[in-house]
Amino acid sequence: xxxxxxxxxxxxxxxxxxxxxxxxxxxxxxxxxxxxxxxxxxxxxxxxxxxxxxxxxxxxxxxxxxxxxxxxxxxxxxxxxxxxxxxxxxxxxxxxxxxxxxxxxxxxxxxxxxxxxxxxxxxxxxxxxxxxxxxxxxxxxxxxxxxxxxxxxxxxxxxxxxxxxxxxxxxxxxxxxxxxxxxxxxxxxxxxxxxxxxxxxxxxxxxxxxxxxxxxxxxxxxxxxxxxxxxxxxxxxxxxxxxxxx
Length: 246
Description:
Elements (H helix, E strand, L loop, with lengths): L1 E4 L36 E8 L6 E7 L6 E4 L6 E2 L4 E8 L12 E8 L2 E3 L1 E2 L2 E3 L5 E8 L3 E10 L4 E3 L3 E4 L8 E3 L6 E3 L2 E7 L5 E7 L6 E7 L5 E6 L9 E6 L1
Parallel strand pairs: 5-14
Antiparallel strand pairs: 1-2, 2-3, 4-6, 6-11, 7-8, 7-10, 7-12, 9-11, 12-13, 12-14, 15-17, 16-17, 17-20, 18-19, 18-21
């Protein structure tokens, strides 16, 4: 008996199978090849034919297992930095039908415009139902924040924009003056400072309060204390310093 699949990119079968004498059927394996086509549900016809017999056709629906896009639940606004909130996410095919089977990784990130905000977790795994629900935590704050979900093959989608406000215990960037590190020491001037997680701190120096030269740049962890030291301080009769946080 000859077997034919009308779409070998979706379903492959052996070219023929043998039905033994006295039997009315034969078992065989069909394969669903992995492909990169985001084409949604495809109905593939499997045709069996043999000399002296009428051919038989069976239609087999083959679903995509690679998402064309993701759909988020609506994320309420505002959220609070460092406070977990619930998010539901589902994978969809090109027809916006939920994908039943998708075992791929999904990378998550938080964006405020072009600025990347720290997010926990940064990766989740979809189960066989093609969806995920759980808690996310944005560890900074900003306006028009969106969660980005990206599949391994490059497809991504964005959530609705929402506001993330600072936690009640947050404060402005601070230069620590009472920790024993502030001031001159053997011709070197230094100080410790602290700022919000994920921010970029730049220490600048000037001799005239007009022209500023960046001396040190740090990407900060969660309210992490950083130390600055100017090794050339004793070369100047006067030098001013400022801390810029972006």
